[in-house]
Amino acid sequence: MAIFGKYFSSEQIRFLNQNWYSFDAIDIQYSDGKKKIILYEVKTRNKYSVDLPYKPKMTLETHNLYHQAKELGLIPVIATVWLLDNWQYDLEIKDFNPQDYYIDSPKLYDKRARG
Questions:
Q1: Which domain covers residue 63, as residue numbers?
Q2: Rounded Cα distance, 45 and 50, in Å
Q3: In the chain, N or C terminus with fewer CB closer than 10 Å?
């Protein structure tokens, strides 16, 4: 993580070192001299699930982690890959919003589940 020192604060680096395995993707963007550090939670859905009454799942640990990232100045988003017919797909990127998913039970890889 030493090469990221110019992009992240020491607190952000510590957070990323402790939780790197929990993020699906990280994007560093510069525009007009300002930096944006975006953390992606990627979900895959198919076009037939659009009208179904369920939302994508997320564990409470992951939910809390993305909220902590936001408090540290990182930008969490949810990227949904919509699978269409004939190997086609669409990509939807939305602000991280708890209304867009529901909290699932803890998983083996969650810190809380590991004890």
A1: 2-114
A2: 8
A3: C
Give the C-alpha separation, 79 to 82, whole Å.
10
pLDDT in tens, 10-52: 898 899 889 888 899 988 887 777 788 899 999 988 877 666 6
pLDDT of residue 5: 66
Q: Coil, strand or helix: which one is 74?
A: coil
> Other C-beta atoms within 10 Å of 26: how many?
14
Q: The sheet that has 75-83: what strands, in order across it?
A: 25-31, 34-46, 75-83, 89-95
3-state secondary structure of 82: strand
CA 9 and chain centroid, separation:
19
Please provide the average confidence, as pLDDT, over all residues in the chain: 83
| CA-wise closest residue to 80 among 67, 68, 70, 89 | 89
pTM of the model: 0.78
Helices (H), 1-115: 10-19, 60-71, 111-114
